[in-house]
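Sync notes, pocket subgroup
Present: LS, DG
LS reminded everyone that the earlier model was apo-only. Rerun requested with iron/sulfur cluster included. Inputs:
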Amino acid sequence: MKITDFFDKNTFVLSSEIEPPKGTDIEKFINTAESLKNKVHFFNVTDQQGAVMHAGSLTGCTILKNKNMEPIFQLACRDRNRIALQSDLLSAAISGLENVLIITGDHPHLGDHPDARAVFDLDSVQLLQAASKLMEGTDMAGNNLNKAPSFCLGAAVNPGADNLDLELIKVEKKVRAGAKFFQTQAVFDPERFNDFMDRMKEFNTPVMAGIVILKSSKMARFMNEKIAGINVPEEIIKRMEKTEDKKNESVEIAASIIRNIRSRCQGIHFMPLGWDNLVPHILEKAGLTI
Amino acid sequence: MIIGERKPLKEIMEMVAECDNVIVAGCGTCVAVCLAGGEKQVRVIASALRLARKLRGKPIKVTEITVERQCEKEFIEEIKTLIPNHDAIISLACGIGVQTLTQHYPHTITYPGLNTTFMGAPAQHGVWMETCRSCGDCILDLTGGLCPIARCSKSLLNGPCGGSKNEKCEVNQDIDCVWQLIYKRLKQLNKLHLMREIMPARARGEKDNGFPRKIIREDAML
Ligand code: SF4
Ligand code: SF4
């Protein structure tokens, strides 16, 4: 099922990120997904997130698909040239995957194989274009496909980017290149997010707000310092600092952010970073069911 | 110009461990300017070698010479008569100099004394920056004169990745995110429309695809 079908029906769409295993044991991966089945609509299966080597997104997606869960195939430009990227898109289509999130990918230098060669043959805009072209029946070189894939393409956006004008130029290009929905970097500041959404209006493309589950005040400070576009307000950091029950506080914080922004966006995208079991609590607190 | 960095003495010592007399050959052009391979560095390396080998009880004879440009046959002709009396050459030129010596003096081994690092310019005294990757199809006209191929860590062509923070690159806070610079520059030039254009995937073809490139100018051939 394409994610756009949900947006078209005005469904408030929920998705959660899930990471394929580092190794060949997929039990935890499956259990995590099962625990969120019927609680979120979609699972974003990550593609070597943070440039840390894992099993592939394609396989992860296929497993979920076979278990009647709807995956979003994440595809990063970092590790593959245009031949491999297009090939993976065709493979995804053959496996019945319909939703693809196209991202640049973190630099290998930040991951667990810092000496790996970075590819970046295409950037995210160019990969969106290439995927769009596949859907029209030809590859990037103009060769015909024996059957064209059909995807719903998505892209990432950072509402907290230092330079929002520049970020929006890129959004515009992504829309022109075929992006049909956006998922955002973590939102902590509803006001800032609202301003961002005002500016996103012109693109008329659904936006799913990213929610990162905070684990500690330390993590919040780390993200503020190191991660682009994340600005956890001091007040939230204090709350995490003071609390006796971090998990509970984290649930409260996430739920209140969601309540504040839900009327402004078309969905929520969770990035639980291991605390997947909190997602149902957050949904419950925020009053979101599917 | 071509920027190089001297290899650690230890590495050079290992290369010539079996030699009794060597030439340390400098190059007077790019690598001299970036203080890696000119006359002065030849002196430094030569005396360090002599001293280190003396301390090890295996003295070495070192001849010092610097030519104007090691990458051209005409200039390396100057050392022709020196070669036969030596076991090896340590070239303090870029890799092109090392290979030009190798090609013209195939009977003597030439060792690289430098790590040839990149093409760039001095940013300030003692700081050099990579600014071009010789991609074979320059797009500086579209990017306000700042190169995203050499200066963006991901060589992105359509704007910054999500990792740019405080105008710095996600890879390292010492690296300016060139896309932030390009944006500012194009804005200053009133040419932001250039950034709105989708830059197509690079046609690398024969220009930049890992195989050795060659330029033939018949008008310049003898
Ligand atoms: S685009 Fe960049 S790498 Fe290519 S020739 Fe121009 S400056 Fe050099
Ligand atoms: S932060 Fe800027 S320079 Fe670094 S990889 Fe991203 S776009 Fe390129």
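DG: The interface with chain B takes residues 77-78, 82, 103-104, 106-107, 109-110, 118, 120-126, 129-130, 140, 156, 158, 161-163, 165-166, 169-170, 172-173, 176-177, 185, 226-229 of chain A (CB under 8 Å).
LS: Residues 109 and 115 of chain A are 7 Å apart (CA to CA).
Action: DG to write up.
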